[in-house]
Write a structure and sequence with these properties.
mainly alpha
Length: about 280
């Protein structure tokens, strides 16, 4: 019980409290970007509908959804760690290097534990781990090249963060290393950036608190829906990661695709406030 509490319950609880709220800011972004009522409503409804569809898809195709989730997480984590956006070859290499730490290096370094987590999520853990084992060597070579290029470019800060996160993912238990990165780095930086860009930071805090509370309530209800024979720790893992997948898909589409497209478009729809930068 004590081992389970330390290795599973505490890190997941911390990610719910300090990590999930950064996604709740999407509501504030939508409110600021869409000044008209109906665009706001339609975008929020589409966001929520996509969350529901993702949960249903995971129930039907857990292995496929887990693979998609890992791929999207690699891109989203890596993209968020870059100071400049773009789709040059060098930028994509940096994104894959930084994001791959959490999607490839971490599970490769803790295969037995991560394999069990994949099984708890209903996926075929053997297939996912086999794919990770295939990709780890080319990723390692790519990461080495990226680090060397960063050193040659004098980007010492990026080198230090990449090597530090790589060491963290190897040395720490998997959920703890993910928790530290997700809460102290990814979520914190996102919240700081978005709140500073919002015309009303107060709206951002209201959205974070209210939407996170609603999300936690829905997660508790979802846990009650699981079979009575499900262990509560397994239920916690399932609800958190499946819920995170359901929230990540619309979050990524909004942050990494829709807003950059909206910023670059010269024919924006009426009622759209362009004052908020995508990054």
């Amino acid at each position: 019980m004590n081992e389970t509490l330390i290795q599973i319950v505490i890190p997941i609880s911390l990610m719910v409290v300090f990590g999930v709220p950064h996604g709740a800011l999407d509501g504030a972004i939508i409110f600021q970007r869409c000044s008209a009522l109906w665009p706001r409503i339609l975008l929020l409804l589409a966001y929520l509908l996509l969350c529901g569809v993702c949960v249903l898809l995971w129930i039907v195709l857990p292995t496929v959804c887990l693979a998609v989730f890992l791929g999207m997480s690699m891109w989203h984590f890596g993209q968020s760690d870059q100071s400049h956006s773009g789709y040059t070859v060098q930028h994509i290499l940096r994104v894959v290097t930084d994001g791959g730490i959490w999607v490839l290096l971490l599970p490769f370094s803790h295969q037995s534990v991560v394999h069990e987590l994949f099984i708890v999520l209903g996926a075929d853990g053997s297939i996912i781990m086999q794919i990770i084992n295939w990709l780890i060597i080319p990723w390692s070579l790519l990461a080495l090249v990226t680090v060397v290029v960063r050193i040659l470019n004098g980007d010492g800060k990026a080198v230090i963060s990449t090597l530090s996160f790589a060491a963290l993912s190897i040395m720490m238990p998997p959920l703890w290393s993910l928790c530290i990165y997700f809460c102290a780095w990814h979520s914190r930086r996102h919240i700081s950036r978005i709140l500073s860009d919002l015309s009303s930071p107060r709206l951002g805090w209201i959205m974070m608190i209210s939407l996170t509370s609603i999300t936690v309530l829905m997660a508790l209800l979802a846990a009650l829906w699981l079979p009575a024979t499900t262990l509560w720790t397994a239920a916690m893992v399932q609800v958190f990661f499946i819920g995170l997948f359901a929230l990540t898909v619309p979050h990524m589409l909004l942050i990494d695709l829709y807003l950059p497209w909206l910023d670059s478009s010269t024919h924006g729809a009426s009622g759209v406030d362009r004052s908020y930068p995508a990054r």
